[in-house]
Amino acid sequence: MNPNILEELRGIxxxxxxxxxxxxxxxxxxxGLTNFRVIPSAVVLPDSTEQVQAVVRVCHRERIPFVARxxxxxxxxxxxxVAGGIVICLARMKRILEVDLANARVVVEPGVINLEVTGxxxxxxxxxxPDPSSQSVCSIGGNVAENSGGAHCLKYGFTxxxxxxxxxxxxxxxxxxxxxxxxxxxxxxxxxVFVGSEGTLGIATKIILRIVKRPECVxxxxxxxxxxNEAGAAVSxxxxxxxLPAAIEMMDNLAIQAAxxxxxxxxxxxxxxxLVELDGPVAEVDALMAHVDEICRQNGAxxxxxxxSEAERALVWKGRKAAFAAMGRISPNYIVQDGVIPRTSLPxxxxxxxxxxxxxxxxxxxxxxxxxxxxxxxxxxxxxxPGQEKAAERLSERILELCIEKGGSITGEHGVGEEKKHxxxxxxxxxxxxxxxxxxxxxxxxxxxxxxKVFPRTRLCGDKPGEYxxxxxxxxxxAERY
Amino acid sequence: MAxxxxxxxxxxxxxxxxxxxxxxxPEHVRxxxxxxxxxGVVPLVVVEPADERQTASVLRCANQAGLAVIPCGGGTKLDxxxxxxxxxxxxxxxxxxxxxxxxxxxxxxxxxxxxTVAQLQRTLAQHGxxxxxxxLWPERATIxxxxxxxxxxxLRLGYGALRDLIIGVTLALAxxxxxxxxGKVVKNVAGYDLPKLxxxxxxxxxxxxxAVFRLHPLPRNTRxxxxxxGDADAMQRVILxxxxxxxxxxxxQARDGNVDILLEGTLDGIAAQESVIKKFGEVRExxxxxxxxxxxxxxxxxxxxxxxxxxxxxRISAAAAPLSRFVIQATGIGYAxxxxxxxxxxAAMERDGGSLMILGATKLDAWGSPGDSLPLMRAVKExxxxxxxxxxxxxxxxx
Lengths: 482, 399
Ligand SMILES: Cc1cc2nc3c(=O)[nH]c(=O)nc-3n(C[C@H](O)[C@H](O)[C@H](O)COP(=O)(O)OP(=O)(O)OC[C@H]3O[C@@H](n4cnc5c(N)ncnc54)[C@H](O)[C@@H]3O)c2cc1C
Prior knowledge:
The complex is a heterodimer of chains A (482) and B (399).
Chain A (H helix, E strand, L loop, with lengths): L2 H11 L4 E2 L2 H4 L16 E3 L4 H14 L3 E4 L16 E4 L6 E5 L4 E4 L5 H8 L4 E2 L12 H7 L6 H4 L6 E7 L5 E5 L10 H5 L8 E8 L1 E2 L3 E9 L2 H13 L6 E6 H11 L8 E9 L1 H17 L4 E4 L3 H12 L1 H4 L6 E4 L9 H15 L3 E6 L4 E8 L6 H18 L18 H4 L2 H14 L28 H4 L7
Parallel strand pairs in A: 2-4, 3-4
Antiparallel strand pairs in A: 1-2, 5-6, 6-10, 7-11, 8-9, 8-10, 12-14, 12-15, 13-14, 13-17, 16-18, 17-18
Chain B lengths: L9 H15 L4 E3 L13 E3 L4 H14 L3 E4 L16 E4 L6 E5 L4 E5 L4 H9 L3 E2 L12 H7 L6 H4 L2 H4 E7 L5 E5 L11 H5 L8 E8 L1 E2 L3 E8 L3 H13 L6 E5 L2 E8 L1 H11 L5 E3 L20 E5 L5 H5 L4 E5 L3 E5 L4 H10 L3 E5 L14 H11 L15
Parallel strand pairs in B: 2-4, 3-4
Antiparallel strand pairs in B: 1-2, 5-6, 6-10, 7-11, 8-9, 8-10, 12-14, 12-15, 13-14, 13-17, 16-18, 16-19, 17-18
Helix pairs in contact in B: 1-2
Bound molecules: flavin-adenine dinucleotide.
């Protein structure tokens, strides 16, 4: 990078806010998806919105691409640096700026760790609902960019439901306020559009969150089935009775073994494990829990446990939350996928995954948010065996194709990032992607903010868009899709 | 009455009519009359396409010809927003009224924009489900209309707003592009969240042709409780007390010296919650009709416009102080008929971090200021509808 620009950046950030030595830059070469690596030209560590603005203005003037980074735990390569670009790491902006319990709002900087929000308000019986398994390390800024989910989003909604407003540094360095502490601010719901935009629309420097009153009680039930099919039938039964559990999670035998090896959660060794959590007023939960118990038994559950203490409950969840990392215990390498299917297709896709696994000889462990059809197939492989990595990549891609065929999605919470952008054209028609990119052009006409991510191709943004020329498929009436 | 850019002539209307008739069939185009006026502006023609593709073709034609299009559903809130700068074609999606797929086992529905809310709810109820919203005038209001005007209703407290329930949308853009985003599954982060962009955009970015929603089961039991409150402070206290407990009310609203609470769920759960709520005042069984209290603001001959305002829950009593006829939801969204100085009221709400929107045409700007994000909103409009074909001038800041 041009030394003058480095000097300018150092002037903005002070001596400790700039990283430019190649050794230190390595720390930032990838996120949680480690098979993609790019060394950035520089990393900046701003500690204020003004510093972010000043850095982005330099980038804008010099046409340098930049990539925001929170804790770097993303699983789709969202925070992967762009060659020749700058990484803007928000980890130092980690103040909780305001706690307003009367209105159930908390205002934070983007580097605040997810779990710290709950930590700050727990004594007043509030919690921050979105709970990705990585919540003890991932940042709110990263959560916002990915629209992160978690087990309890079945009932409480994803990050987007809990973000009311944002301060965003746009790719030209200007600052805008989107949304507000009150609901339904006048104008387009640009806060709603920003959440989940994976760092491609600018940098969030302040976030207004909604917190939730803790339910009066929480009960967690663990049910062991002979197979995931039986467990899946129980999930359908539970949903059909008209209740909305706080969480329904499922693990198959391979995932159970890995979790056991890693954290000794004391799970029964079974073909399909279901974890059902209900919360709410005690009387309500007790009445419904009896139903859940009955439905599980009817569908073949041979062991049912209800966590009797907060400690037992925590242990049950620890096993589930550790499931990804636990794969390291049973396989040297693995790929995590994040496809979504309509929940009713679960038995079918599990059988198909089993067949693919048999065909390729690669083991696949399955962990899912069963209530909302979000699969996390973990494809296990050994990089040292020639050809296995490619085969594993191909297999996980094939699983995503199956998700699309069933009317689902290629990602439920991890984002498209670098990893899955080529899959976007399989899920969406050209006009769909083109229309999304109109938003991109409004926010970032020069395509400086995390360019090259999410979309398979970038749309050119003129200063004034010309008359749109419809795609031939569209004119022919073919490219209308759902 | 707003000024027209171009004087409409009968021959001009005939010319447009002919082109549109070729697209949608002669029986689905008619010349407009005074009764079709939208916020005081009389359009040239009213056209009712049969499907998504025809909708897109109508738009493309109008766009090329420089005609302004007013998308329209049930027409219940057609006068919300500012008067159109120009209005040539009223595009009614009335015929796009099918429930395309109720995937009840997956708790989702795909529905066309012209389907009325009530019709959708009746279809969903066959499988014991609902879209958990209670907007105004459900028998006439359409899905497209409630989305465009962002009218969720009182259930928002318990189930979230339309923005939280919509999971997919298809838009016909001014240039004739048909574009879908989101999908059919409740969890999905692939691509930008255009369903949220469309929600509340008042038809200024595209015509919503269909939407996909996540659904909820119909409640096993419901009970409405009402507590009489003496003054605004007591009202505020009761609302905050209820929110402060570990309860799960589906809706809470204040009106005319009363606070209403909607409980849903098992009988045991409802009874237990009721016993907690009793601490806050004398509770009596309320009528389910109270949840339509918002609608009662309209037909009365009361003076002054109806406004929607937003405030923080802790500022509800302050917001209510200058109002006499109002309904305020515990989320901080309120509706009132107000015959005082609306500008002054808006300024007060904005000072408090809230906003005020006028529902219906007046001489004043309907929206108030979106602050420093207005240029960005204009840029979005410019990308979606560069010629200003859709509802020109009706949205914030003259968008
Ligand atoms: C073991 C493990 C378990 C996980 N479990 C879950 C899970 O259950 N659910 C789930 O949803 N995810 C999960 N993840 C994925 C990941 O933790 C989330 O995507 C998380 O939100 C990323 O946060 P981060 O701070 O690490 O962001 P990063 O990885 O640093 O960045 C993610 C994206 O956000 C952008 N970004 C970061 N900060 C900002 C900002 N301030 N403004 C604009 N853009 C910004 C980046 O450019 C990038 O595109 C898991 C990851 C791991 C490693």
